[in-house]
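so my prof wants the structure for this chain in the tokens format not the other one, which i didnt know existed until like an hour ago. anyway here's the sequence
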Amino acid sequence: MINKIVVTWICLLLLTSQLIGCDKNNLGTQPQIPDLNSVGCLITNDFYAVHFSVYVKTSATKQDSSDRAALLKPFCQELPTVGKAFFSADLIDRDIRKTPIGIRVVELELTGSDDSKPEDFKEVRTITEVAPKLYTNGVVEAQADIVKNGYYAIFLLIGGEDAISDEDKLRIPFHVGGNPDALPKKTVMLIAGGGVVLVSLILIALVWYRKKARNKSLSND
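here's what i got, hopefully its the right format
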């Protein structure tokens, strides 16, 4: 009985952690893209969706094969270090390929206590701004020099100068100076919480088993 409970809950925890690990939190600090064949992490709002990826060229660049491999390493929204960042967003909706798209890369300051809420940030400065134009091939590209760790965001302004409403501004937050291989916060919390639940269930099962065994022993006497 106890073994069945333990095995069942371990399976449930592993399955749930896998599902949550593929998801993003509100900040969007998803872990590193698994391999070079991936198209990027999925970023969405209520109206638009893109596959987003970032490549970073550090200032300590060496012209050798190892440096080239590092430059071709795609990240999602958690960048390990500063440098020249190359952003790429593949447009999933073919209709917006006929619509001008402007780009802004901004530095953010966390003014609140929750880095998963956009309202807890304020814009510090604009790092890069690209005038609206058509991206008929479906790939929006930009680059920016990131000189310090911290919070940033790239905005895709669907409609260019006509992108007035928040729905037409696809906000893609990213963080510089973290561990791109780290699990999202929700996954860590889920695993920790699941561990507590699992231990509690095992203790309950042990108490129940001992109580049942004791009652059986008393009834035999």
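also thought this was worth mentioning. The first strand starts at residue 41 and ends at 44.
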